[in-house]
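One thing: can you check what follows?
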Amino acid sequence: MTEPLRIAIVGAGVIGAVHARLVAALGDAGVLAAIVDLDEARGRALAEQYGVPFHASAAEAYRAESVDLAAICLPSAFHADAVVAALDAGVDVIVEKPIDVTLESADRVRAAERASGRTVSVISQRRFQPVASFIRRSIDEGALGRVTSGVVESAFFRPQEYYESGDWRGTAAIDGGGALMNQGIHALDLLLWMLGTPVSVSAKTGRLAHEGIEVEDVAGATIEFESGAIGLLLASTAAYPGLPVRLAVHGSQGTAVMENDGLAFFASATAPQPDADSLVEHDVPEGWSDVDMAHRRQYLDVVRAIRSGGRPAITTDDGRRALQVVLAVYESARTGRPVDLHE
């Protein structure tokens, strides 16, 4: 029998606690081995909750607890440093989005990954939702014909207290951005997954409903893709009371719409309606959401990749591409001009 991977959570904040719960539910795939945080009180509290060791140093945890996989759950600007340190210690990595806040940092992660021969995956769990997977399969199988456009909305709400809950939140240097970089990047990743390689971005951003932050709480963009398809993006943390992510993909032979984690609409000139039951989450633990279930699937995919020596479904290339578009949105909004993404 294959031994479960030993997983350390690096960063015991809100998202670190989410990862700890997910890892604790992996069964034979993985076990929680350690909690790491510079804040001893916070780190020890989470470690005690799950009955695992606490360490103030990731390097110490990797050595002492024979860690196989590190889940990096730190503020965004610290991601690259933590990923490279884990790889240098011989540990595979799953890192929260975004991969980091600069392309230079993203490239450093990719270079370290290649040099180490180890596995790194960037959290983009919405790809693992049944409806999102169905829409992507429909595209691949030609059920939508030529994809002509896509629209994605991440109309969330965060109160002022959210940005005041940590001195790094809402900062350009550490948070890297606002509604798009930290919330809307999940929706953006879905749009990129469905429509392909982006080549140009035109955007506007605003800081309209929050005070004392350096980043946007609304972003809108038009994205041109290599195929000629056009994508529209809205990301907000100023849309009270907040709505579910909505994705629509339109093609010459069909349209598919995902809303509230379900298939809201599907029409194809060549394909039948899908089995509705196959697109519904089953056996969801109490207190879990559909997105939590997708998050767990991404963990299982990373475990599969590590054990098989294959590539994870979400790669560092995917993480870099999403970051590149986010930064292009900010540049276009700042300059008032489209940004060419050809490298």
